[in-house]
Amino acid sequence: MISQLDLFDGVKLAEPEPTTTVRLGQKTVQIPLRKKRREATNRLMEILEELEGKDIYIGSYDAGGRHFWLDNLKLPRLQLEWHPVRLRNDQSYIPSVIVLWGSRSASVRIFTDYLVAVREQEYQGYWHYLLDFRNGFWQSPIDNYRSHYACLTITRFKD
User: Fold this and answer.
1) Claim: this prediction has a pTM higher than 0.85
2) How many domains does the chain have?
3) Looking at the domain assignment, is residue 4 inside a domain?
4) Domain-located, residue 7
5) Contacts by 81-87 with C-beta closer than 8 Å and gap 24+?
6) Is residue 8 in some structural domain?
7) At 133, phi and psi to the nearest 5?
8) Cβ-count burial of 53 within 10 angstroms (0-12 exposed, 13-18 middle, 19+ buried)?
């Protein structure tokens, strides 16, 4: 009987990070959305934890600012909810849905699957937090049921 040495005994193999293929004409690009999504979601979670219990205003618009879905919707006494439920010590946690609750059952759901950036902007003493969602290019979106670009604004006015 011949015994063979197992080279990979006890070695954990990592899966490659999934990429999204975007085509524009004859050019094809593979974008690793998970890394950008993880960075943006972690920053968003930090911001939302600071804003919890305070009054915020939500606004959103489509590509180029040509269409508003919401404009300064007030969510008083903000409460947060994460789905799936967050484990306390899990550093790799990325929620798929973040629910922002206000008083009188007002709520806004943020789907983080195409979140790529979180920007901050101060204007005359109040803060805008701009969440950028990308869905490929105008001519070839990744998901045909969503806009190719959308921005959600969270505004915190002075106390």
Assistant:
1) no
2) 1
3) no
4) no
5) 82/45
6) no
7) -120, 125
8) exposed
